[in-house]
Amino acid sequence: MLIFSQRLKWLREKRGLTQAEMAEKLNMSQPGYSKIESGRSEPNLETLVKLPKILGEDLNFIVGLDDYTFEAKQASDELHNVNQKLHSILGNIDFVINNYDEDHKELFDARKDILEQQLLELKIDQSKLQKKLDNYLSNIPQKKDQ
Q1: What contacts 38, CB < 8 A, 6 or more positions away?
Q2: Do residues 83 and 139 both lie within one domain?
Q3: Fewer C-beta within 10 Å: the chain N or C terminus?
Q4: What are the pLDDT digits (tens) for 90-107?
Q5: How many CB atoms lie within 10 A of CB 75?
Q6: What does pTM read for this prediction?
Q7: Distance (Å, whole) CA 74 – CA 56
Q8: Domain containing 19: what range?
């Protein structure tokens, strides 16, 4: 349950809540909450059910069954979408190059320029999203920390 305790504390602090405020939201004493957060006691089912609403995260993440917060999942999904678009543009570039026609050089050059610009923009987006995801993941208490 170490990952649970680590994430519980991390999420509480991330939301700017004190142990006393968490205890109040969970209808328990501050010492009782402190025992749960420190791993000296386990929460009952009623307490577990309240945590996602209070902390704004999925229970699977809080208890360590999932390693991505909602923010990290969103960044990962955005990165996946950008990677799919990059793959599509690379396919379009390949198509344009393989169907080069000297008689339509101006059209070829214009199309190539547009695709190269789109590729550049997506690579910038990809880099930003990867950094964002890496930042989220570097701050999340992971199971390997146990």
Answers
A1: 5
A2: yes
A3: C
A4: 898 888 888 878 888 888
A5: 22
A6: 0.69
A7: 14
A8: 2-62
